[in-house]
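Supplementary notes (optional reading)

For those who missed the lab, this is the record we used. Protein: histidine kinase. Length: 463 residues.
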Amino acid sequence: MGNRKKSADVYSLEPVGMLGEGFHLSAELGPEKLLSIQRRIHEKMDDYKDYSFSATEKRALMIFFDLAQEFDSLEEFFTICTAVPKFLFDLDCRLYLAIGPDEFVPVGRTENKAPVCSAVPLVKEYRGEHLFVPIRGNIELVDQLPFKPAGDVIGCFELYKIENLSPHQSLFFEKFVNRVGFQLHSKLLRRKGQEHLDFVRNLVKDVGHNVIVPNMYFKLFYNRLRDRIENIHKLEGEVENKPAEQLRNDLEQLYSGLVSQFNEIHSHYEQTSLFLETLLRRQHFEEGRYIVEKRPCNLLKKIIEPQLERYRSRFEERGIRLDISMGGVPDLEVIIVADVGLISQVYANLFSNAVKYTREATMGDGRKDKFTAYGWEDVPDHFKNGWDGLKLNVFTTGPHLSEDDRDKLFQPGFRSENVGNEYGSGHGLFFVRQVVELHGGEVGYEAQDGGNNFFFILPLGDE
């Protein structure tokens, strides 16, 4: 054992793990940096001596620190922030967070029925037995917000029923709120990081479901194209033995088939390109969420018809009739303000499901039918802000979904009990819900005569 030699290579490995790939550990800090840290330690010792915090105040800081590490969720953290001053100093308080440049909402409070402050000050202020201490955001957090907060103030802590606030109390609560702010930064950044990671994971599923899986049809298209090319080769050997009229008919049929095949491949290519461009926008990755790029568009011409053409041959192969009986005038120009790429993928998912799950059904008049229908209808004053809605329907004949399935339809990974052997990931309707909600709309399901109606409602706002 004592003679065994150790390889020097063991000590030259770069540590990989919780610190990250390629993170280099330094054996020791430089003398200047070490001296700077030592100086700050002494300054802090002097500061806390000058603060002269009482035992209760020190206890409050320690309890807050411990509990802020112990509880993970933001909701629990907000409660801890307000509970510590209440339990240790019998002071009611509220914690506000910014949701816009000059708009704050209470996220933690000790009194549910007490009125909230309508105008949060951007500097520390004491008025009417209320102490307001702002929480300023650092650059890293402020840069990730979808708005620029006034004065970089991302929150505010309000303590009230404080009679004759002393300078010492003001200092202590300022230091307490500073610790609230530090923990808040840490938790918000961690949540943003987790949301970003979740978005990327979800995006991978979206690309797989909306682009990669449908692209398998390219193989089918190319096989059909190859068959037609082989038919041309066969026809070449039959030219001398065929009458001119029959030869002309065969050539026209081959030409028509090639044009049809070309259009199908080209349409699939255009939609795949649109989907990829939409899903892989740079802004999505920078923000860690889908960024909707709305613009006015013709619903039928720009969104529905391209997706119908993409799936028309698959409907025909399964003997599914296409119907326009779900409302809306077929040639009426309906203009909506939406993200064309994302809403197109909503219809692609709904039509894809229609191809797979449409079944023959007995209609109310006793006849049997097998069809998919689409259309739209106005829904006046549907949204709480008074906006009208546009209800967009995709109906499929077949047995109704069970009550249990209806509640889970738009949840991630859910597949109904009636899917049979049809391939699917349970991601399509969840994607539909995500996109529609990003547009301020809502999704739903209705059991109707002879089948199932899947719909979404978009707001028709001032845009």
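If you only remember one thing from this example: The domain at 281-460 is CATH 3.30.565.10 (Heat Shock Protein 90).
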